[in-house]
Structure formats: C-alpha cells, structure tokens
Amino acid sequence: MIKKFIDKLFGKAAGATSLGKRVEVQAAEHGIDPTLLDERAVRVVQTLTDAGFEAYIVGGAVRDLLLGWRPKDFDVATNATPEQVKSLFRRAFIIGRRFRIVHVVYGRGREHEVIEVSTFRALPTAEGAEQVSGNEKTSKAELAGKSHVVDAEGRVLRDNVWGPQIEDAARRDFTVNAMYYDPQRQLVVDYHGGLADAKKRVLRMIGDPETRYREDPVRIVRAVRFAAKLGFELEPKTRAPVKASAALLANVPASRLFDEMIKLLQTGHSLASLEQLRKQGLARGVFPILDAMLDSKGELYEGARGQFVRLAFEDTDRRVKEGRGVSPSFMLACMLWHEVLDRWTKIRESGEPTIPALQQAIDAVFDARIGDISGRGKLAADMREIWMMQPRFERRSGSSVFSLIEQPRYRAGFDFLRLRADVGEVDGALADWWEDFALGTDDEREALLEDAREKDKRRAPKAHAQPRKPAAAAAPRAEAEGEEGGELDGAAPAKKRRRRRKPGGARKAEGGATSTPQE
C-alpha cells in the first residue's frame, strides 16, 4: 500500500514535471550587469571550477540580477558533494538534515558573509523514496541514515539524493528561481522558461502545483512572499490549489513556519504581503500571530489598533529598502501589543498590581501566539523588555529615570513609546519629555525633572500606561539623528545631544524587523 502511495505521488509528479530543455542565454540577451555580482560568490564558483567541478550562481540571485537588482545574498549550486565542497575552503561547514548544504564563510563578526553552496539534487522517484508515519521530531530514529523520505501526506522530510543539473532545475519550485548563472562565461542556463516568465513578471510553478505544494507546503507561503516582493502575478494554475492546500501547513514544524512568517514580513513589502495573504484566502488561520492583529476579514483593525501596526510595518519596509538594521523583536512586539494591552487591562481590573498584571498578560500571549518554537527565548526576552518599559516611562522621578535611559534596549522601548504616542494611545508630551531628557545636557535634564515634579504636584496620579482616545490624525514618529530606532541587538544608550522635533508631517517612525537572506 505504501508503494502504491509513493508511486501515485512521485510517479505522477515525475511524469508531469518535464525535465525541460537546456537553453544557454548569452550576455547580449540576458543583460546581467557584472558589477552587481558579489566577488566572494564569484570566488566560490571559480574555486569549484578550478577543482574540476561545475558551479553556478543559482536561484533568487539570478532572478534579481535579471531584474537589474543587486541581490542581498548569493547561493551557489555545484555537482560537488558537500564533503568535496568543504574540503576546498578554509572556513566551510556542512549544515542541515532535510537538505545538506555547505556554508562557506568569509570575514568575521558582524561583517562576515556566508555563501550557501548546495549540491545538484535528483528529481524524486518512486524507487528512491521511503515513507514514515510521523514528522521530523517524532520519526528521528526512522530518518537516521536515510537520504530521501516522505511523510504520510507526501511532504518531503529528507532530500539528499544527488543528480544532474537538469534534474536539480526540475525539482526547484518556480521557473524564475530555477536558472543558473556562470559568472566566468556570463552565461545563463535556463531549463523551464524562467527568463521569459521574469520578463512577463509571472510566478509559475515547475510541474504540477498541487503535487509540489504537497511535497513542501511552505511553497504556499513562498508563492505569497515572492508575489508581494517581486510584484509578480501568480500564474492561474499555480494559484488555483493554494487555498485548498493551506491545510497542509499544519504538518510543518512550528519553528519553520514561524521563520517563514518573519521572512514574509521583512522583505520590504510587509503590507503587500498581508494583502497577498488576504487575496489568496490565507490571512487568518495560518499564522497565530497574524490572527492577533487582523480582523475577521483578514485586514488590519480600524482606528488606533490597526494604525499602530501599519506605522510599524511602513517603517520596517522603509528601513529594509534603505539597507538599515532592524529587529524582529520590535516588529513582533508591535504585532502583539494590543492583545497584551487587552489582557493587561482585564487583569488589572481584577485587582492585580500593574507590573505583575503586565507580566501575566505577556506570558499568556506568548503561550497563545508563539508557543514552543526554536529561538523563542531570545525573542521573548527582547519583546518582554520593550513591553515592560512602557509603565516605567510613566514614572519621571528618582534614579529610575537615569537607569532606564542607560538600558541597552532603551532605544527600542522609546521608539515603541513614540509609536504609541503617534496613534494617540499615550500623551505625545510624554514621548517628547523622554526624547529631550535622553539627549539633554545635565542642566537640561535637571530642569526637565523639576518640571515633571511640579506637574505631578498639580494633578492627581493617573493609571500607568492606559490607552488614550486616538488622535484625529496621528503623525509619524521623529527620526533620531544617527540612531537606528527599534534595532535591539547592540543598541547603545542615547547620546547627550539636543534633537529638535520636526513638524508633525515630517516625523517618522523608528523600529522594525531584522532582514534575512533573500531567496
């Protein structure tokens, strides 16, 4: 019975997925600008070819080069095995189980660069595939030592069978991602009409789309992401099974799906990605975090709640386009803030003190929306610190004021406060005060503290960090001079330098999401 299932899955797929025909496109036709190439990627290709192997720049980098864009990341494909690749480079590491690849590393620290090198893979066949009943976690023992394995739904759990380039091209997802570029001969190798689809701005699946989504349901999310990022239209046959295949995403490990969601929102086209999800019927029910910030129609909420997320996403997109550093923690904190705020308010109303109530609200939202995923600890710590700063901003007296601005995450916490002020959730004067205090001289800081003390004497204490009625027109946040707002990792305390706020329409939000290698 298992053999019949595999024959049905891969026999039909192999028959329906044409191997294509090798077409070599010369520089005069493809028009790739050699100055857009990364010299280290070219060096990897040259090292492999000098050793007698085939090697090409591949995938998204070729697609972007054809569109006239400078790729953020470069991948290389070769007929050398991972062990052979590793032996040719001083700093190279074999990683991955599902797909074994090699990371060739240049440089050190924050300036390092990774060139990802993969071995040409064979097109799946019925004879080579084995089936297990569980997934990556529950079937670890069964997966050990195997090269090509699928689960009960046909999702590929292992794909480490090497083959020729023509089969490697056929097993890639979209035609525009299945081209190879030889930088030494300035030659593009195209098997499935990817060059023509790139010119027509069409996203077309190689082979039968329904089968390909079953092999790897994450291709559904990739289709949405590329359509939003590239401004391409999904070819009708590629789009048709998307919504019906979405249920297959339930079989994907939570950590992998979470990573794909982050990629979806950090391409510099986060709002376009949300629109694509809605267009394909995937806005709700796929990502729990998105469910927290979208209404029943899959759209951002009306009023301050939706405007808060929209401003954060607009700023994230802008920062990605400008090549500036951004943080996933800040973006996620913005996406989940109003669910935290709602729970926090209810817990406080039950009689719990402010800080314990906020801690309980944060824990509840983490459990409901993030769960047990890889890397949650670091994300949770950064997000928690941003949120826990918010009631502290309400207290402007004593030594706590100085200790707050000296915190490494202060910049992110302040940018979050500024964003709340922009949508009318807190008084804009509060954000102005902290901006002036952080950048003021000693005398200016003392004057600000005295002014805050006098105001506190003249009015009764108000509840900390309660939402205000949204302003009629929220202005974007002020952009710091030389600061990278929202970038949590390695953020330095604010400099003692006066910064004057710009008029309302000129202020911009600071904060966003970390960029990742582009496909």
Verbal overview:
By secondary structure, this protein is of the alpha+beta class. The chain has helices at about 1-15, 25-30, 40-50, 60-65, 80-85, 140-145, 165-170, 195-200, 210-215, 220-230, 235-240, 240-245, 255-265, 270-280, 290-295, 305-320, 330-350, 355-370, 375-390, 400-405, 410-420, 430-440, 440-460, and strands spanning about 25, 55-60, 75-80, 90-95, 100-105, 115-120, 130, 150, 155-160, 180, 185-190, 200-205, 235. It has 23 helices and 13 strands. β4 (about 90-95) and β5 (about 100-105) form a beta hairpin. α10 (about 220-230) runs parallel beside α13 (about 255-265), α17 crosses α19 and α18 (about 355-370) runs antiparallel to α19. The radius of gyration is 26 Å and the shape is elongated. The protein starts with a helix and ends in a 61-residue tail after the last helix. The relative contact order is 0.09.
Key descriptive features of the protein:
519 residues; alpha+beta; eight-stranded mixed β-sheet; three-stranded mixed β-sheet; 13 strands; 46% helix; 9% strand; elongated
Please provide a brief summary of the model.
The chain is of the alpha+beta class.
Secondary-structure blueprint:
Layout: H1 2-16, E1 23-25, H2 27-30, H3 39-50, E2 55-58, H4 60-66, E3 75-78, H5 82-87, E4 92-95, E5 101-106, E6 113-119, E7 130-131, H6 140-143, E8 148-150, E9 156-159, H7 165-170, E10 179-182, E11 187-190, H8 194-200, E12 202-203, H9 209-215, H10 218-230, E13 233-234, H11 236-239, H12 242-245, H13 254-265, H14 270-279, H15 288-293, H16 303-321, H17 328-349, H18 354-370, H19 376-392, H20 400-405, H21 410-422, H22 428-439, H23 442-458
Parallel strand pairs: 3-6, 7-8, 12-13
Antiparallel strand pairs: 1-11, 2-3, 2-10, 4-5, 5-6, 8-9, 10-11
Helix pairs in contact: 10-13, 10-14, 16-17, 17-18, 17-19, 18-19, 19-21, 21-22
